[in-house]
């Protein structure tokens, strides 16, 4: 971060209070024991875009129209919810369920890349962004109340997609997808021959790189991640190689705190069903089960992080968002046909149960519990 950005943070009174912290906030990757509200981006059959709030118990929904297709979400402590833009996103939406919507514009030469997180005190918002002309991945830094842009950190890689705060409250973990894009070329991938995905740990107070990890297969784009309360990290991967010639060794990786980033074992026949594409993740810390959705493969998969291997998978139509209901020991999964399903968290194969169905709602990307 440059000197001007540092002075802005200091002047705003947020740098020391929000980034040099002792008190931890709830991690967005861990469901609260009695979560009752689900948030998700959604579409309707006419092509409208929304942020939808769902009461899990009653099934009632409330939707706010938004001007773009959303991706990740972040509930704020005051009840507002940020919906992050992607594909590419030149704005984010902050939804206040009683007062409508506020827009957060991207800074000049940047676009949002789908996700964000708060500092431990909740005063600072970090957003994954692409500084496209400079070919740099950055974390935008904003005041979480006013959304004033205060500065940025380098992510030490291209295409940062997801960022989460680690349980120490001091470290950010970033999934750099490694893919170069530019709005002038739409969603075209410009550097597949040289792409270098990485998982990077960054000091939240200074922007200094703490550690960086890469997988042996550079065609495995590191897209989504989950940080557990124990400091472990799960990673969902998307394969940019030629699936007709070769299947990837795996599409899910796991990193024990202080260890290496390792692919979880799976057979070639099993990995083929996921069509090279994994999306959202959720984790059961008691059973050590990682659940990962594959919308292109039309399956929800379950993996043992204790045994470092694939367990089983179950067909669903374009499963996208996934979360863990700790009080029920279940995984909740949304799909593109309007279904909300639950799976028991078990090492053995088990069928999904349909919890709710909304035929005019196409659930998208991710779900977040609150």
What does this structure look like?
Pfam families: DUF1513. This is DUF1513 domain-containing protein. It is globular and about 50 Å long. It is mainly beta and 370 residues long. The longest helix has 10 residues, at 3-12. The relative contact order is 0.13. The protein contains three helices and 28 strands. The chain has helices at residues 3-12, 15-19, 268-272, and strands at 37-43, 49-55, 61-66, 70-75, 81-85, 91-96, 100-105, 110-118, 124-131, 136-143, 149-154, 160-165, 171-176, 198-203, 209-213, 220-227, 233-239, 252-255, 261-263, 281-284, 289-294, 299-304, 309-315, 319-325, 330-335, 339-344, 353-357, 362-369. The strands form seven sheets. Strands 3-2-1-28 form a four-stranded antiparallel β-sheet, with no helix packed on it. Strands 4-5-6-7 form a four-stranded antiparallel β-sheet, with no helix packed on it. Strand 26 (339-344) and strand 27 (353-357) form a beta hairpin. The chain folds into two domains: 1-21 and 37-214, Methylamine Dehydrogenase, Chain H (7 Propeller), CATH 2.130.10; 219-370, YVTN repeat-like/Quinoprotein amine dehydrogenase (Methylamine Dehydrogenase, Chain H, 7 Propeller), CATH 2.130.10.
In short:
With 370 residues, the protein is mostly beta strands.
Task: Using brief descriptors, characterize the structure shown.
Methylamine Dehydrogenase, Chain H; 28 strands; mainly beta; 4-stranded antiparallel beta sheet; disordered N terminus; globular; single chain; 370 residues
């Amino acid at each position: 971060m440059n000197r001007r950005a540092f002075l802005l943070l200091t002047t705003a009174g947020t740098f020391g209070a929000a980034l040099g912290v002792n008190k931890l906030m709830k991690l967005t990757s861990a469901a609260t024991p009695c979560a009752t509200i689900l948030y998700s981006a959604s579409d309707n059959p006419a092509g409208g875009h929304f942020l939808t709030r769902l009461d899990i118990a009653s099934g009632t929904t409330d939707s706010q129209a938004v001007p773009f297709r959303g991706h990740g979400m972040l509930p704020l402590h005051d009840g507002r919810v940020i919906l992050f833009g992607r594909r590419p996103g030149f704005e984010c939406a902050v939804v206040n369920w009683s007062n409508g919507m506020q827009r957060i514009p991207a800074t000049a030469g940047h676009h949002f890349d789908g996700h964000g997180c708060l500092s431990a005190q909740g005063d600072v918002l970090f957003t994954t962004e692409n500084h496209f002309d400079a070919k740099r991945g950055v974390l935008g830094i904003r005041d979480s109340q006013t959304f004033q842009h205060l500065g940025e950190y380098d992510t030490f890689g291209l295409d940062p997609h997801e960022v989460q705060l680690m349980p120490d409250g001091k470290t950010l973990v970033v999934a750099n997808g490694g893919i170069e894009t530019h709005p002038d070329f739409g969603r075209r991938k410009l550097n597949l021959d040289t792409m270098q995905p990485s998982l990077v740990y960054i000091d939240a107070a200074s922007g200094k790189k703490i550690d960086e990890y890469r997988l042996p297969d550079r065609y495995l784009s590191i897209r989504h991640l989950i940080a557990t309360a124990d400091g472990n990290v799960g990673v969902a991967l998307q394969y940019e190689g030629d699936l007709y010639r070769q299947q990837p060794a795996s599409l899910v990786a796991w990193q024990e705190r202080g260890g290496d980033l390792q692919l979880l074992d799976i057979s070639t026949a099993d990995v083929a069903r996921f069509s090279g594409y994994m999306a959202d993740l959720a984790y059961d810390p008691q059973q050590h089960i990682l659940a990962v959705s594959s919308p292109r493969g039309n399956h929800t998969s379950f993996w043992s992080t204790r045994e470092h291997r694939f367990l089983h998978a179950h067909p669903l139509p374009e499963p996208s968002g996934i979360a863990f209901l700790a009080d029920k020991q279940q995984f909740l999964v949304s799909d593109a046909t309007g279904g909300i399903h639950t799976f028991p968290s078990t090492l053995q194969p088990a069928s999904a149960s349909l919890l709710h169905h909304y035929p005019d709602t196409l659930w998208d990307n991710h779900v977040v519990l609150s």
